[in-house]
Amino acid sequence: MRRPFVAGNWKMNGSVAGNKALLDGIKAGLAAVTMTEVAVCPPFVYLRDVAQQLQGTAVVLGAQNLSEQSAGAYTGEISAAMRLDLACRYVIVGHSERRAIYGESDALVAKKFAAARKAGLIPILCVGELLEEREAGTTEQVIARQLDAVLTLEGIAAFAQAVVAYEPVWAIGTGKTASPDQAQAVHAFIRNKLAAQDATISDKLRILYGGSVKASNAVELFGMADIDGGLIGGAALQAEEFLAICRAGA
Ligand code: PGA
Questions:
Q1: Ligand 1 contact, 234 CB (< 6 A)
Q2: pLDDT tens-digit readout, 117-127
C-alpha cells in the first residue's frame, strides 16, 4: 500500500507575510488530512522561515531545484547539502519549467537527481511530454528517455528513495488537466517500465500526477490505480483548495 502524497510547488511566488497567511490557513485545516503525506516547496529564500512555521506539524518541506555540484565556485547555485541544512526532505528535479526555460537536459536532470540522493534528499523526478509530442504519439518515448537518463546514471535501486511526478507539459498552469484515463495510462507505463527492472521497487514507488490539479478533479485523478497523489502548482497557493486536494489523497 503506497501512502498518498501531495506536494505544493509554490514556484516563484510568495512573500514573508503571504507565506504566513497561507501556512496559517493550511495548518488550521490539517487535522482533517489523515492519510496523506503533505509537503510544501517554497522558493529557496523562504525555506528557513517556512520550516520554523511548520515545526510541530506533519507537513514536510521540499525545495524546487538544486545544483548538481556539491560545493565550490558555482556562483548563484545552491547545493543539496544546503537544502538539507534547511530541513528539506524532498527536492523537485527536472520540472518542465527548468527543462524548457532554463535548458536543463536529461543528463543534467539525472546529475541533479544523483546529487540529491547523495546528500540524503528524496528527489521528486518530473517527467512529461510537450503537446506536440503527445499529438505526434511519442509520449511514451519521451517519458522513457527521461527515465532512462536517470536509470543509466543511478540504476533502478535509486528509485527506492525517490518519487516520480508525471506532469504533461500541456497541462501545467493551463487549466487543461489530463483525463484520469490519460494520466493513468502514462502512470502505468512508468510503473511497468520500472517493474521490468525491479518489481518490488516499482510497486512501492509513488508516482504523482501534476498539471492543473484542483479540488474538483483531484478525487477522480487520485482514485486511479497508479496515481499516488499530486504535485500541485497554482492550487497550492490557496489554503482551502490545497487542503481539499490533500483530503482527496486519502
Ligand atoms: P499547476 O502546476 O498545478 O499550476 O498546473 C503544476 C506544476 O507545475 O507542478
A1: yes
A2: 999 999 999 99
Q: How far is the CA of 93 from the centre of ligand 1 (A)?
A: 14
For residue 17, give the H/E element and its range: helix 16-29
Q: Which atom of ligand 1 approaches the CA of 213 most closely?
A: 3
User: In one letter, which amino acid is 93?
Assistant: V
Nearest residue by C-alpha to atom 3 in ligand 1? 233
Whether the pLDDT of residue 114 is over 90: the answer is yes
**Distance from C-alpha of 78 to C-alpha of 66, rounded to nearest angstrom:** 6
Residue 135: active-site member: no
| Residues 62-106 pLDDT 10s | 999 999 999 999 999 999 999 888 889 999 999 999 999 999 999
- In 3D space, the residue among 81, 62, 64 whose CA is nearest the CA of residue 72 turns out to be 81
Owner of C-alpha cell 527548468: 98
> Is 0.85 surpassed by the pTM of this model?
yes
Whether the CB of 94 sits within 6 Å of ligand 1: no
Which helix (H) or strand (E) segment holds residue 60: the answer is strand 60-63
Interior angle at CA 235, CA 237 and CA 219, nearest 5? 140
9 CB under 6 A from ligand 1? Answer: yes
Alpha-carbon distances, residue 105 vs 23, 101, 112, 127, 150 (angstroms):
34, 11, 11, 12, 11
Confirm whether 167 is a catalytic residue: yes
Q: Which residue shows C-alpha cell 493550511?
A: 26
Provide Rg for the chain, Cα atoms.
17
Q: How far is the CA of 144 from the centre of ligand 1 (A)?
A: 21
For residue 6, the CA-to-ligand 1 centroid distance in Å is 12
